[in-house]
C-alpha cells in the first residue's frame, strides 16, 4: 500500500504542495523498506530515512512558516508549535531500540509519518489560505 498525494492534500500553494510531495515520497520509501523481505539488516536504511526526514523538515517547516508569516496567517503560532513537536519527536527516536527491533522501529516511524500526513497536512496545512 502506497500513500498517494491526492487532491485533498493540496493547499493551493504550489511550493508547499511540491514540498509535501517529498514527505509522501519518504513515507512510501519507509513502507517499501518495511515490506522488503530480502534485506535482513535494515538499520542503516532506517537511519538514512530518519536523517533525510530531519533535514527535509528543517527546510520545509522554515519555508511554510515564512509563508504563513508573510500572509499574517491567523494560526501561524500554533501551527509552528506543531512543527516543533514533530521535530522533537524525530529527535527523540531511540536508535538503539531501533537496532534491536528494526521492524517495530520502521512501523513506528511509518505510523508517525502517516499520522502527520493525515492529521497535519490534510487538516492543518490545507487551511493556510482559508482565513
From TrEMBL:
Keywords: Iron, Metal-binding
Domain of life: Bacteria
Key word Iron present: yes
Hemerythrin-like domain sequence ranges: 11-125
PANTHER family on file: BACTERIOHEMERYTHRIN
Family of the protein in this entry: Belongs to the hemerythrin family.
Protein name: Hemerythrin
Amino acid at each position: 500500500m502506497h500513500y498517494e498525494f491526492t487532491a485533498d492534500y493540496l493547499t493551493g500553494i504550489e511550493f508547499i504542495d511540491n514540498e509535501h510531495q517529498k514527505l509522501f515520497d519518504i513515507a512510501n520509501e519507509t513502507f517499501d523498506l518495511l515490506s522488503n523481505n530480502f534485506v535482513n539488516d535494515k538499520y542503516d536504511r532506517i537511519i538514512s530515512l530518519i536523517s533525510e526526514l530531519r533535514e527535509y523538515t528543517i527546510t520545509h517547516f522554515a519555508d511554510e512558516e515564512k509563508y504563513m508569516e508573510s500572509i499574517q496567517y491567523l494560526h501561524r503560532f500554533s501551527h509552528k508549535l506543531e512543527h516543533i513537536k514533530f521535530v522533537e519527536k524525530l529527535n527523540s527516536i531511540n536508535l538503539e531500540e531501533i537496532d534491536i527491533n528494526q521492524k517495530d522501529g520502521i512501523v513506528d516511524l511509518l505510523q508517525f509519518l502517516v499520522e502527520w500526513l493525515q492529521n497535519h497536512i490534510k487538516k492543518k496545512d490545507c487551511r493556510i489560505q482559508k482565513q
